[in-house]
Amino acid sequence: MKDGSWESFAKAEQIARDQTWDPNQVESADLLFQNPPDKMVGQKRLNSADVEFREIDLKVFQPKTIDNLFVLSGGANLSEKASEVLLQPGKLIGIGERVGKEAAVIAKKALSAVNPKVIGNAHVDMVTGNVSELLEGLRPSLNMGEVRAEETSLPVFATYDVVVMGGGTAGAPAALAASRHDASTLVLDYMHGLGGIGTLGMIGRYYHGYRKGFTTEVDKGTKDIGEGNPRGDNKNLAEWVFDWKMEWFRSEIRKAGGDIWFGVLGVGAYVENGQVKGLVVSTPEGRGVVLAHTIVDSTGSADVAIAAGAGYSYTDGHSVAIQGAGIPFKNPNDFYNNTDWTFIDDTDLLDVWRAMVVARDKFKEQYDIGKLPQTRERRRMVGDFTVSVLDVYNGRTYPDTISVHMSSFDTHGFTEDPFFALKPPQHSGVDVTAYVPFRALLPEGLEGIAVTGLGASAHRDAMPVIRMQPCLQNQGYAVGWAAAMSAANNQNIRYIDVNKLQKELIKIGSLPGSVLTDVDNFPPPFEKIQEAAKTVTVELTGLEMVLWDPARGISTLTEQFKVTTNPTRRLVYARILGILGNPTGWKELISAIDSFKDWDEGWNFRGMGQFGRSISYLDSLIIAAGRTRRIEVIPSVIRLAKKLTSESHFSHFRAVAIALETVPNHDEAVTLYNLLMLPGVTDHSMPDIQTARKMTPPGKTDTTTRNNSLRELILGRSLYKCGDHNGLGNKILQAYSKDLRGHYYRHASGVLKYHS
Questions:
Q1: How far apart, in Å, are the Cα atoms of 489 and each of 183, 292, 351?
Q2: Is pTM, for the whole model, over 0.85?
Q3: Is 105 exposed, middle or buried (CB count within 10 Å of its CB: 0-12, 13-18, 19+)?
């Protein structure tokens, strides 16, 4: 190693991996082991290796002039031989136990800091710019104030043409593409392997997806890297030995000249006048900046783009819909353990910790648990273009298509788009093809950065089609290639020659040739909307077309409602218009609701294998009626609400809550209060880890906790908005605002904030 910089450690790690990887391995260590040559100057020194660790003076582990700090590593004031002996795990554990007790004694005597601050070290000649980071803290309820940080400077660790933050499903391909196309490239990941959800995430098998192009190379390369090894004999190209795939990405990036830094967090962006010029990283050697011509944000949560100032969509005070997630179990040689038993907010440290701890209990009979949350939905930045559900269903094409996606709507939960409230997604056997334009990967208002994968700009209900691994591998490779082009031409990535890139992607099969002649087929001709408005009365045929252009669609539907005398057809129009918030058919909706003596077959929360409807027909009538905002619909809704029991389906409770909170009054508040008073409906929040462990049942696809918590939270929200009878709504929201589960916390806190 030329020096003790993180760059040198990262290089050494890759050399060690080059020399030690074996296709037979079923487990390996994350970190290099080292007896560090650089030792701290301590209050005392230990030279002998023969001393019993229980007798070692703990001042050996304290810096010379600092009493309230201990260095528990081989970097303490030890001789090389003493360090070698004490680094044996058993001995270091013993030292740690002693240091912990001593630290507690010191802490009790220590005085509280008065006006603490981080002293600045700004230099006159430093490069100026904005270091933009996400600094909200863990949770507002846990924040204990702030420490003032004076103006300071950050070291520049390195400079590259392309820096890829996140080496996952799309990030590893992006780094490989940029490296292969003559861009100096660095890929960073907090994990110690590449491939993301398809490797360390334990989803080592494709579910649908567009598998041509670069993905074909990935699949074949992964298979070939273990050629002749029996571990891969029973696997086709659609499934893989996950450590082979990690190694294929790693070795190919190395072969192409790219650099890899593991164990590194991206914590912010270096921005100047809307131009992202670098990535702020946190390494074991400290915090600094990596400068780059182009940043590829492959964090999966658009973390870098959001830190740089991009807007984003996520769960909040308006929405608590999120796809199911899990932490998997892991046994040696496992490659596919797909779970869906909770919700996890990847950006929330408390939530990830909660999920990891609970997973340890849930899978205590297994060898281990996975290292990566299996989240299917994360934060999505706001790009130059946002892909909608109806863009997908209408086969929208674009002149700047960057990737093609193919899947059924594997929703892992309930949907929110008005289209799905009327016409649910089809079954798993029916695939939809979706195109994603380059503009959907470019954060609005920012230059020098592109976002891949789950962080792309799309409506959450469109994500199930565009999140599949084979598609995102192709997308990542395309974006990495685009980043290399932008560096080679010294231009912002937003302005590259997309047509030229498309031609290259067609050559390798990542895109179909039709993209070269595709134009934007939106908006649809008015004649098609008019035609669809007439056919929707027959099993909602053409609904996707008539809703695609909402302004003209609503106008046409309203006109059809007025000229139609057939009661059945008028109800179809009334339901569609009501779901869209138009009150035209409110009388028809009341009549339709009143024709039901009792509830129809509803829907309970389901994650794994959730296809099709997530509300019943009657649920949709009730939601549509509520969205008309006519006070006259409320008695009909309340009549059915009074028929609900603790055993009723979740979708019925959700429909009632949505309808009533749109036109709040006292009668609604009493009705909602009574629903919450039903046996077993309340007290499902998890404010601490003991409660979370106790309340989470075994099984890798549990839905009971989510049904219970979602029902309570949504009813509590609605009650709060309707005037909050007896203060119960506020009590429920306050409880969930302290829940360890991040999405419930986000929703409850948002409701309290927006409606206080």
A1: 11, 14, 43
A2: yes
A3: exposed
